[in-house]
Amino acid sequence: xxxxxxxxxxxxxxxxxxxxxxxxxxxxxxxxxxxxxxxxxxxxxxxxxxxxxxxxxxxxxxxxxxxxxxxxxxxxxxxxxxxxxxxxxxxxxxxxxxxxxxxxxxxxxxxxxxxxxxxxxxxxxxxxxxxxxxxxxxxxxxxxxxxxxxxxxxxxxxxxxxxxxxxxxxxxxxxxxxxxxxxxxxxxxxxxxxxxxxxxxxxxxxxxxxxxxxxxxxxxxxxxxxxxxxxxxxxxxxxxxxxxxxxxxxxxxxxxxxxxxxxxxxxxxxxxxxxxxxxxxxxxxxxxxxxxxxxxxxxxxxxxxxxxxxxxxxxxxxxxxxxxxxxxxxxx
Length: 332
Ligand code: 25A
Ligand code: L14
What we know:
The chain is of the alpha/beta class. The strands form 2 sheets. It has a 7-stranded mixed β-sheet, with helices on both faces. The chain has a 6-stranded mixed β-sheet with strand order 9-8-10-13-12-11. Helix 8 (284-287) links the parallel strand 11 and strand 12. The chain is 31% helix and 25% strand. The protein has 2 domains: 5-127 and 322-331, NAD(P)-binding Rossmann-like Domain (Rossmann fold, 3-Layer(aba) Sandwich); 132-316, Dihydrodipicolinate Reductase, domain 2. It contains 9 helices and 13 strands. It has helices at residues 15-26, 76-88, 111-114, 130-146, 164-178, 210-223, 257-265, 284-287, 318-331; strands at residues 5-10, 31-38, 46-49, 52-58, 69-72, 92-95, 124-126, 148-157, 229-236, 243-251, 270-272, 293-300, 307-314. 5'-O-monophosphoryladenylyl(2'->5')adenylyl(2'->5')adenosine (25A) is lined by residues 11-17, 38-39, 41-42, 59, 73-78, 96-97, 130, 161-165, 321.
């Protein structure tokens, strides 16, 4: 690559922001100038990148002069407020928040599925929700081969998805519990250590949560399949990194587990770990720190005419957020 770019990372001090920096280093993204943006709380901080120390700057509407690419992960309200200024300044933004995902003018991209949409951008490209990304990476090859009609998914989402403060909360509650201290939830609505919380984001009128309904609408948009039926249940589990999902699909055409295994083995971004007799299947500890989406427990769903069930694991901060966004930036 001959050209180098001016890159700004918005939310640089957060869990996803830090991962942006590590992956930009790993993949040797061609950076000319790097700008690290965060809130006033981080104004005095410095962050390491490529062996050098960079100051964190306070995000303002004037932060984007001369910036070519913005990688944003500071929450939806910050994206709504600041990304229009970045676009006006001539930057292209890859946004990790939910702010613009369902806008008709904004491509919602998982490169393994719909990279062709990137070129339609008008300054903003949205990165989907972490749970949706890993699911569509694993399902798209099956959809192409056998046309998926319906998806039933239950997620087991790690605490890191909700940011650095939630990571700290699981650590503190675990320690308090083991030391016989009273647990007082601060960030999560309930105790998360040694517990499961069947609520991620707020409840909507239909009694699903917003996270669950994101999986419905985002899956349809990314796979360009407006008729796919999706029933999601999203659960927070006391795991630090990597989300896991139990996924069952009903297809129009018959497809067997062997064929699915073969398809997924040659799918970029997917690694099949599926040897149940020898106790081999993906777990969150296997997904942590990896780029691939791990798939196992592939079997025929015997409760319907044409169905497949499987288990999907991926690092929610990498493929679910920072890596997917940087793959989009590379294609830009
Ligand atoms: O929409 P919301 O409600 O604002 O949601 C924001 C949340 O969503 C997370 C993000 O995680 C945050 O918790 N998030 C965003 N995208 C995500 C994705 N794709 C995602 N989670 C999963 N997948 P985070 O906490 O890891 O990162 C927060 C980053 O955003 C910066 N930021 C926040 N407000 C800002 C802002 N930047 C500019 N202007 C603003 N107004 C934030 O910078 C961080 O980089 P920071 O300097 O505020 O935080 C530095 C460290 O301080 C901790 N912290 C945050 N708030 C508090 C705090 N510590 C004490 N008290 C606080 N009130 C942060 O955890 C961080 O470590
Ligand atoms: O839509 O685990 O990117 O709370 C960010 C927070 C997805 C869920 C998003 C979490 C959300 C995530």
